[in-house]
Each structure stands twice: as structure tokens, then as C-alpha cells.
Design goal:
Blueprint lengths: L9 H16 L11 H6 L7 H6 L6 H14 L3 H25 L4 H13 L4 H5 L4 H20 L4 H21 L6 H12 L11 H18 L6 H10 L9 H19 L19 H19 L5 H14 L21 H14 L3 H24 L3 H11 L4 H13 L3 H14 L4 H14 L2 H14 L5 H24 L1
């Protein structure tokens, strides 16, 4: 079993990580509310007071909502104040990561570099810049706390060991209340025992049959809890986000999940052209080269973890961490988006551990220097990426350059142009959204408003009617408003015809 002395200078390290976090993400203090911030934070009564939280009118991630309450009381609807917590949680996670790496046997300089890679990677920008995504920061905080307690329990005895086990279990509960994607955390504990604990000192694996039964029972409970995700209609929801409605088969989802895995690996290595929405071309065909290549990469990565388990257990553990936390967001069971930057927040500690383990094994000056250069470059890219989150307009106008084939990006950037008075661009983007997917109901509303402001009342009426007819299920309040407004608009249209 790998052990290490207690981590020295924790206060200094905490200040260091907070300073790095403020340096790299400080420009987010100028950002406005974006993406999911308005429904999840600004207009969520559960996040404004304990009384509202108790009413639970908008069920969500309770741990996240609790942390919004003091922000709301102190800063109201000013997003800059909320970012103090955002940056604090991210910086503290950096410290916890160094502490965990050190507890696993990584020397402090290499543990620092692994944690810094995690801290400044551009894929983290969405989780830190998007206040609504605080769930990722909180989930990792509790997951790392649980992991530290579990690892520390092997050096303890008696009542202290029991207390650490109970603390690990409580932290796991906190992680689940922050984000259900931490459900696979017990697999990390099993992997740790398998790779780094002598057989005679193991706890969970001492009776593998009992552990297996426990995992089967937990898996069955989870499948029952989230059984709705397996329904065909949920599969079609995932497909619709990628403008694919040709099949109810599972094969397109599986191949899409494989493409997303390869996409993640590419963005970890070359984190450019990042956006809040990604789409993948789905197909029922078995011959999808990128999906098959990604499947091969997945097999190679998993095989490397097994092959390196004796020679480089730290690297093997890092790979395992990445794969374990990728599983809940892989969409092998349909969840939502096939890929999102925020899904990597829980996975990237594994990448940091891989780097730390490799540096410890090969501490050559050139390798260390190259790693430092990559970290500095990534930090610069993150500062740039944070700038795209400045407002809804900057966010989606950048996103459409990254993902022009996304109907949802097209519709949202169309709304952005509508709100800034560029009605020609708003209409053009909404039409493009409908060309990609004619079932994008909200695009009809954006197009109707743009055409109305351009004076094309006939086009406006036609698109308002489409939205009123098909949008009632998804947007009931807005559809009701449109139905009330349509008679007024038709009257204006009649007057316009008389003057032509």
C-alpha cells in the first residue's frame, strides 16, 4: 500500500491555489448571467431562501441550491457576487486534489503539477464561469473528501478508522446531493483497494462476493430510480438534440457515445473551439469510422489501465478514475447531451493523476519543462474561453462558429440577435435552425418575432400559429400568450393589407 507523510504547508498551498484560480478565472467577475443561470439561479425560488428551499417548487440538486441562498441574500441578482463562491470551491478542489495525490504517494512537486493541470484546463471554464454548474464543483469537493477519508482509513485503527469510514459515507451522500453523476464513486474505492492495498489489509475486497452483491443491488436500485431514462421517448429526446429522428434503435446512441468519448480525448489534448453545445451526426449504420476509432481508443485506454497496474499503479488509477466518472455522463444510458465540457469536471482529476504519476516515474527536465509550458498555455486558453461566457450574446455567437450544424445553437443565437435589434440576422438564424430540424418549436417563435419586427406580418402570423399549435406541451405559458396575441396581430395584418 502506498502511503505518504502528511501534506506540508496546507495554508500556503490553499492561498496558492486560490491565487491561481483568481488569476485564471478572475475575468469571469465581469460576466453576466448566461446559459442555465437564469432558470436555475435567478428565477429559482428554492435558491433564494430556506423557506423557498423547503417548499422545493423546482426539484433539483439540493446541495447546489443551499449554496445559492447566502449569495442571493448578500448579492441579490448581481452575478459577480456569486462568483466568489465559484472560484473558492474550484480553488479548494485544487488543494484537495494535491492532498489526495500526495496521500496516494505522489511527491509534492508532481502532485502540484497534476492539480494545476486540472485547475487551469480550458474544459473547466464552463463549470466555473457558469454559475448554474456549481453542482460540478460541489460534487467534486465531496467526492474528494470521501476519497481522502477512505484512503486515510487504512492508516488508522479502531474508532478513528470507523469515524473515517462514516465520514467517507457522509461525503458520498453530499456528493450525490450535489450531482448524481458521482454515483460511481464506490468503484473508485474498489479500484484503489485493488491497485494499492495489500490483500490482507483490504476492506471492500476482502469478501469479493459480498462486494459484488452490493454492487448488483446498488445497480438494480439505480436502474429502478432512473428507469425513465431507459424509456424510448427519452432516447428520442437525446436524438432530437442532435437533429436525428429516423430511428428508435439503440445503435445510433451507442455509436454517438463512442464519438463523444473520442471527442473528449481530443479536447483534453487540444482544448480549442469549445462551446456549451455540441452535436454529433447519428446513424444506424455500423460503418462509422470515427465511432469505431473512438471505440478502439476506449478499449486501448482501458487495456492500458490493466497493463500498467503493477508498473505504474498511479497512472492506472488515474485512467480508472477518468473512466469511472465518464460512465455516468457517457450516455450509454441516455441522459441528455452526448457531450458537454462540464461533464469532464469530475473526470479531469484522473488526467491530472496520470500526469503526476508519469512525472514521478520520468522526472526528466525536458518532460517537466514541457508539462509546465502546457499548463501555462492551457491557462491562457482558459482566460480566453472565459471571455466567451461574458454574456448570452458573446456565448452563442461564438458557439455558432463552433457548431453551425446545431439547431439549438442556431435558434439561440437567433434570439440573441433578436434581443440586440438585428432582426435580419435573427430571422436568418431561426430559418437555418428550422432547416436543420423543423421540429425545433422555439425557432418558430424566434422567427415570428423577427418577422414581426421586420414588418412581415404574414410571415409572423404563420410562424406564431406554428408555435401556438405545437409548443403548448413544451412551452405552455408562452404558447398561451401567443394564442391571446394572435387575434391582435391578424387585425394588424388586415390593416396592413388594406394600405398596400
Amino acid at each position: 500500500m502506498m502511503t505518504a507523510s502528511p501534506l506540508p504547508h496546507k495554508r500556503i498551498l490553499l492561498v496558492f491555489f486560490l491565487l491561481v484560480t483568481v488569476t485564471v478565472y478572475g475575468n469571469t467577475f465581469f460576466n453576466q448571467w448566461t446559459y442555465d443561470d437564469i432558470p436555475v439561479v435567478l428565477k429559482n425560488p428554492d435558491a433564494h431562501s430556506l423557506a423557498g428551499f423547503a417548499r422545493n417548487t423546482m426539484p433539483g440538486r439540493p446541495m447546489r441550491e443551499l449554496t445559492y441562498i447566502p449569495d442571493h441574500l448578500l448579492f441579490g441578482d448581481q452575478p459577480a457576487g456569486y462568483r466568489i463562491q465559484q472560484l473558492a470551491w474550484h480553488g479548494v478542489n485544487g488543494l484537495l486534489l494535491v492532498t489526495l495525490f500526495h496521500a496516494l504517494g505522489v511527491e509534492l512537486p508532481f502532485a502540484l503539477m497534476g492539480a494545476l493541470l486540472f485547475l487551469v484546463h480550458p474544459l473547466q471554464s464552463e463549470s466555473v464561469a457558469g454559475i448554474a454548474h456549481r453542482k460540478e464543483l460541489l460534487a467534486l469537493f465531496f467526492a474528494l473528501g470521501a476519497a481522502l477519508c477512505f484512503v486515510g482509513s487504512f492508516a488508522a485503527a479502531g474508532g478513528r478508522r470507523l469515524a473515517l469510514w462514516l465520514a467517507a459515507l457522509a461525503a458520498y451522500g453530499g456528493a450525490l446531493l450535489a450531482n448524481e453523476a458521482t454515483v460511481t464513486l464506490p468503484l473508485v474505492a474498489l479500484l484503489y483497494e485493488w491497485l494499492m492495498v495489500e490483500p490482507g489489509k483490504r476492506v471492500l475486497l476482502r469478501r469479493p462476493f459480498v462486494a459484488f452483491l452490493f454492487l448488483v443491488a446498488a445497480g438494480a436500485a439505480l436502474m429502478y430510480r432512473f428507469r425513465g431514462l431507459l424509456a424510448p421517448e427519452h432516447l428520442l429526446t437525446v436524438y432530437s438534440k442532435n437533429s436525428f429522428g429516423a430511428s428508435e434503435s439503440y445503435l445510433p446512441l451507442f455509436m454517438g457515445a463512442m464519438k463523444a468519448f473520442g471527442f473528449y480525448l481530443s479536447k483534453i489534448v487540444l482544448p480549442v473551439r469549445l462551446a456549451p453545445e455540441y452535436v454529433f451526426r447519428l446513424s444506424e449504420s455500423l460503418w462509422q469510422p470515427w465511432a469505431l476509432l473512438s471505440l478502439g481508443l476506449l478499449a486501448a485506454v482501458a487495456s492500458a489501465a490493466v497493463f500498467l497496474r503493477r508498473r505504474l499503479p498511479l497512472v492506472s488509477f488515474g485512467i480508472g478514475w477518468f473512466l469511472i466518472f465518464w460512465l455516468p455522463v457517457s450516455n450509454l444510458v441516455p441522459v441528455a447531451y452526448l457531450a458537454a465540457d462540464r461533464y469532464m469536471y469530475l473526470c479531469l482529476p484522473g488526467v491530472g493523476l496520470v500526469l503526476a504519476g508519469c512525472l514521478q516515474r520520468w522526472p526528466h527536465r525536458r518532460f517537466v519543462g514541457a508539462s509546465c509550458l502546457v499548463i501555462v498555455v492551457f491557462a491562457g486558453l482558459t482566460v480566453i474561453q472565459n471571455g466567451y461566457w461574458r454574456s448570452e450574446h458573446t456565448l452563442w455567437r461564438h458557439a455558432v462558429t463552433v457548431n453551425p450544424d446545431s439547431t439549438w445553437v442556431r435558434e439561440t443565437v437567433g434570439l440573441s440577435y433578436l434581443l440586440t435589434g438585428d432582426y435580419n440576422q435573427a430571422a436568418a438564424q431561426a430559418r437555418e435552425a428550422l432547416r436543420i430540424d423543423r421540429f425545433n418549436i422555439r425557432a418558430y417563435l424566434t422567427l415570428a418575432k423577427a418577422e414581426e419586427r421586420r414588418g412581415n406580418l404574414a410571415e409572423a402570423v404563420l410562424n406564431y400559429e406554428m408555435f401556438a399549435m405545437f409548443g403548448a406541451m413544451e412551452y405552455p405559458d408562452e404558447a398561451a400568450e401567443v394564442r391571446l396575441y394572435l387575434p391582435v396581430l391578424r387585425q394588424r395584418q388586415a390593416v396592413q393589407k388594406q394600405h398596400q
